[in-house]
């Protein structure tokens, strides 16, 4: 293996939360013109979790964040940086990380939100790693959380079947070379910004404007077919680049955890990388696309199923609106 970062960050604790309410494909059959068979064959999704009426983003973040800190054995007051990766903020001002800070008790932490859509968790890992490597931070809480169903157009069958809600969190602490995040890479290509977007609800088309309401703009829109092709190429390319930079091959890794958007994207990326099916983790059938929460939620499931354990070499790769992508090679 090539030299990894001299000082890096390791995952000291992990926590996850899925809202209790489950929306199955059969439930969706009663809402839009779709079928369980169409959704299953095109996406691999069977069900997704949806926030309760009295829940928002902060309840999800609070549950996952507390579990991650307990798992790491750190007190909330020890956390000196808290990064919340989300595309579905609690409200535009202030940052959702600031709103949830008192509930988490991370009162000594500087807090900010990070917006990189489905790549948000990997982007946040990279930012956290930098702060730890420079000694600016010692204990960082990174949470990927989404309330996508609140931004979903429930009359658009092309998108409403895809998304789910949830949160996943990690606590990062300093580590020596050879442990924790060994390599990490990220990239952005804004020329594809209109592939996945929510064109209303910001300053260009304010949420309260007649145009936004009449044209249904404050909802997620996607050019699914084009997104599919770009996603496969981007996920495979950045994964291979991270493996090459680390001087490892797919044979060396124990588990590949890609962003859970669509089983056909996951399988296509796995075969491009030459990975055996049993090294590719999927839980998209149970959770749908949970954007920034996707990778940590999959990590929790992988641990629960005995597919990931301490010391394993794990490749985490995400792709999302922006377009953004990021990949991290981690000694867990
Ligand atoms: N149920 C039934 N039919 C549906 C449907 C649904 N939920 N959604 C779309 N259709 C129909 C379309 O209207 C179209 O009908 P037509 O041929 O009569 O016009 C047909 O199915 C094919 O639509 P198309 O959009 O070409 O399907 P697709 O094979 O590309 O699958 C996606 C659609 C969204 C599943 C697929 O493009 C995809 O997964 N893209 C990537 C999405 C993604 O993961 N994005 C997030 C990345 S972070």
Structure explained in plain terms:
The protein has helices at residues 25-29, 36-43, 57-72, 96-104, 120-133, 157-160, 210-214, 224-246, 263-273, 284-287, 294-304, and strands spanning 7-17, 21-24, 47-50, 81-85, 110-114, 140-147, 165-176, 180-188, 196-197, 221-222, 255-258, 313-320, 324-331. Helix content is 33%, strand content 25%. The protein has 332 residues and is an alpha/beta fold. It has two domains: 7-179, Peroxisomal Thiolase, Chain A, domain 1, CATH 3.40.47; 182-331, 3-Layer(aba) Sandwich (Peroxisomal Thiolase, Chain A, domain 1). It starts with 6 loop residues before the first strand and ends with a strand. The strands form four sheets. The chain has a five-stranded mixed sheet with strand order 1-7-6-4-5, with helices on both faces. The chain has a four-stranded mixed sheet with strand order 8-13-12-11, sandwiched between helices. A two-stranded antiparallel sheet has the order 2-3. It contains eleven helices and 13 strands. The relative contact order is 0.19. The radius of gyration is 19 Å and the shape is globular. Strand 12 and strand 13 (324-331) form a beta hairpin. Helix 3 (57-72) packs across helix 4 and helix 8 packs parallel to helix 9. The mean pLDDT is 96. The structure holds coenzyme A. Coenzyme A binds at residues 34, 38-39, 42-43, 118, 157-158, 161, 196, 222, 224-225, 227-228, 231, 261-262, 265, 289, 319-320.
């Amino acid at each position: 293996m090539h030299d990894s970062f001299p000082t890096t960050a390791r995952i000291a604790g992990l926590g996850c939360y899925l809202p209790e309410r489950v929306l199955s494909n059969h439930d969706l059959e009663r809402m839009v013109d779709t079928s369980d068979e169409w959704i299953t064959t095109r996406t691999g999704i069977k069900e997704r979790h949806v926030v309760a009426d009295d829940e928002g983003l902060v309840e999800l973040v609070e549950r996952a964040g507390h579990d991650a800190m307990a798992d790491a054995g750190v007190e909330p007051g020890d956390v000196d940086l808290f990064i919340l990766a989300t595309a579905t903020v609690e409200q535009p001002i202030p940052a959702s990380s600031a709103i949830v800070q008192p509930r988490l008790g991370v009162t000594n932490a500087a807090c900010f939100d990070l917006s990189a859509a489905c790549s948000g968790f990997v982007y946040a890992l990279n930012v956290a790693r930098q702060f730890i490597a420079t000694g600016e931070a010692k204990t960082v809480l990174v949470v990927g959380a989404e309330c996508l169903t609140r931004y979903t157009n429930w009359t658009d069958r092309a998108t409403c079947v895809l998304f789910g809600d949830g949160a996943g969190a990690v606590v990062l602490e300093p580590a020596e070379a050879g442990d924790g995040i060994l390599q990490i890479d990220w990239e952005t290509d804004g020329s594809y910004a209109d592939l996945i977007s929510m064109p209303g609800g910001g300053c260009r088309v304010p949420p309260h404007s007649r145009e936004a309401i009449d044209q249904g703009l404050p909802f997620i829109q996607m050019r699914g077919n084009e997104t599919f092709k770009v996603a496969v190429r981007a996920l495979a390319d950045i994964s291979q680049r991270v493996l090459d930079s680390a001087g490892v091959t797919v044979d060396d890794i124990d588990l590949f955890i890609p962003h859970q958007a669509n089983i056909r994207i996951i399988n296509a990326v796995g075969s491009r990388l030459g990975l055996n099916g049993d090294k590719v983790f999927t839980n998209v059938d149970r959770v749908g696309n949970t954007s920034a929460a996707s990778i940590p939620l999959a990590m929790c499931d992988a641990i629960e199923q005995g597919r990931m354990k301490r010391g394993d070499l794990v490749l985490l790769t995400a792709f999302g609106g922006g377009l953004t992508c990021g990949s991290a090679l981690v000694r867990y």
